[in-house]
Amino acid sequence: MRENWEREAFHIGGMHIPMPALSERLEELDLSKPLVVYCKSGVRSRRAAQIIKQASKNAIVLQLKDGIGSSP
Length: 72
Hints:
Layout: H1 4-10, H2 22-25, E1 35-37, H3 43-55, E2 61-63
Parallel strand pairs: 1-2
């Protein structure tokens, strides 16, 4: 779960669902539209994408490669 300052520092829009709550909050996602998932390093977002794809085989899930906190 991210601290508030981390959410503010790396927020690029959309909704915030902490990784531990994702499985219980899948119904909040509009799986008829493409989703972009991201985290600081890319590890949690990769797992989040897997969870979403397992919940809906038709879901289009894009992951921000290497996370939002990586350097160019």
